[in-house]
């Protein structure tokens, strides 16, 4: 019976995800799956297919890592990115749902709670939306949750195969989005302190991760002289954090200041020198304006938490611009002025965000109510999940923060919320005649 319920939940999740495709075809005749960041993934993917090299604009690619472009290359090989990537990403989203189920079942040992967590993820709006656009979120979250499932299983069995499988998946996640770079080492450090009898396996797993991560650093240095894992970190420090600080100090629009910063960086010829200079300048601006940037970072963290994300659905249907929308306005005018502007000029957008915000608030409430039971069920694993939430939430802060950076946190919230909904289902069955 429980397996049948899980099948129903997976089927519901698939129907919800595929229904967005049919709705777009019916109402607007097209799907806007390519967003401003999409070409930076597509170009190296096509280069892999056509030339067998990871490159953009005829030069070795060092800004994007190869994880997501590899998936796009597979989609292109199977029939074209536009027609194949959505089914592939829906499949990945369903695998994430199964990982949520598996982690919750391992944590609580009750199928009703695991089914509840899976059901919450099946209807989670971000999971539905991001499976339809050419961005790395869906692949990253799938690799992260599958790796976490293997790691949680290893915590109980201490079988080396599950540990090495988890580390391979975490490294693949880091190759998809560099924000995951430190996760395998943080989890290995936690396990080294906790599981003394498995320290030999943990050391071997750490060496494996160092080799896998270090291999891409060596590749970047060989092809371009750049010694880092991904230049996107340096670009963010300079062209986003640094530009936002300068815009605030000089009272200029953020987009204008960012453009000026990028033009300055382009004057430096060598990639290693350019990105090294961008990194040092970004860190210098943050250091010299530490207090004001800290407030900016905290505001970004708050925006990550509360941004409902309804705007992205309007973008998908072509009813809202893909670039230069609410985020730019909010950076220049502040949150309250942005809300007032929306209510007065775009009431439909305002109320759609209110509805999505209420649903988001429900997820937070259920997760908070389920925290105590999660802590009582397995303290170590509960703190591990909390740590991962805090990791993504803290690193998500800054001037460009928005709901997109909340994507890997949502399945973790579903795990915390599982006990509450599970108890409701159990009570309903107990009261049924």
What does the model show?
- The chain has 433 residues and is mainly alpha-helical.
- It has helices at 2-27, 39-51, 67-78, 81-108, 111-122, 125-130, 137-157, 160-176, 183-194, 199-224, 232-250, 254-265, 271-288, 290-306, 310-316, 326-333, 335-345, 347-377, 379-395, 410-431; strands at 55-56, 59-60.
- The protein has one domain (2-230, 348-431).
- The longest helix is centred in the last third of the chain and has 31 residues, at 347-377.
- It is globular, with a radius of gyration of 22 Å.
Features:
mainly alpha, 2 strands, 433 residues, 20 helices, globular, single chain, two-stranded antiparallel ribbon
Distance between the termini: 19 Å
Topology, number of strands? 2
Low-confidence stretches: none
- What is the structural class? mainly alpha
Strand order of the largest sheet: 1-2
Give the DSSP E fraction (strand runs of 2 or more residues): under 5%
Mean pLDDT over all positions: 89
The major pleated sheet works out as: 2 strands, antiparallel
* Number of structurally distinct domains: 1
Query: What is the H/E order?
Result: HHEEHHHHHHHHHHHHHHHHHH
| Number of separate helices | 20
The shape, in one word, is globular
Rg for CA atoms = 22 Å
What helical percentage do the residues reach?
A: over 70%
């Amino acid at each position: 019976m429980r397996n049948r319920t899980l099948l129903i939940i997976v089927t519901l999740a698939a129907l919800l995800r595929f229904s967005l495709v049919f709705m777009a075809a019916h109402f607007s005749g097209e799907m806007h799956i390519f967003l401003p960041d999409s070409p930076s993934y597509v170009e190296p993917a096509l280069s892999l297919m056509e030339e067998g090299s990871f490159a953009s604009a005829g030069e070795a690619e060092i800004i994007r890592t190869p994880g997501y472009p590899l998936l796009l290359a597979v989609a292109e090989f199977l029939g074209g990115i536009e027609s194949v990537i959505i089914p592939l990403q829906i499949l990945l989203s369903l695998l994430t749902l199964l990982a949520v189920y598996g982690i919750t079942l391992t944590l609580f040992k009750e199928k009703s709670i695991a089914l509840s967590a899976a059901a919450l993820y099946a209807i989670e709006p971000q999971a539905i939306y991001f499976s339809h656009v050419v961005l790395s979120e869906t692949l990253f979250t799938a690799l992260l949750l599958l790796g976490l499932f293997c790691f949680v299983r290893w915590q109980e069995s201490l079988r080396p195969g599950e540990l090495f499988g988890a580390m391979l998946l975490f490294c693949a996640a880091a190759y998809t989005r560099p924000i995951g770079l430190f996760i395998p080492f943080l989890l290995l450090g936690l396990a080294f302190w906790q599981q003394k009898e498995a320290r030999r396996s943990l050391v071997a797993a750490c060496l494996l991760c160092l080799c896998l991560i270090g291999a891409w650093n060596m590749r970047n240095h060989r092809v371009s002289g750049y010694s880092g894992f991904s230049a996107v970190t340096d670009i963010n420090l300079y062209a986003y954090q640094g530009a936002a600080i300068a815009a605030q100090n000089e009272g200029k629009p953020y987009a204008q200041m960012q453009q000026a910063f990028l033009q300055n960086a382009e004057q430096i010829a060598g990639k290693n020198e350019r990105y090294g200079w961008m990194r040092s300048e970004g860190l210098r601006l943050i250091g010299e304006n530490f207090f004001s940037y800290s407030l900016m970072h905290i505001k970004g963290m708050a925006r990550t938490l509360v941004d409902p994300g309804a705007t992205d659905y309007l973008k998908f249907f072509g009813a809202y611009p893909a670039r230069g929308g609410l985020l730019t306005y909010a950076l220049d005018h502040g949150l309250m002025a942005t809300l007032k502007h929306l209510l007065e000029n775009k009431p439909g957008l305002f109320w759609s965000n209110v509805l999505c915000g209420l649903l988001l608030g429900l997820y937070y409430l259920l997760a908070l109510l389920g925290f105590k039971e999660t802590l009582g069920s397995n303290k170590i694993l509960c703190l591990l999940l909390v740590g991962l939430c805090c990791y993504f939430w803290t690193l998500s802060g800054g001037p460009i923060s928005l709901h997109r950076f909340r994507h890997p946190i949502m399945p973790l919230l579903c795990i915390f919320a599982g006990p509450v909904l599970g108890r409701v289902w159990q009570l309903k069955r107990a009261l049924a005649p």
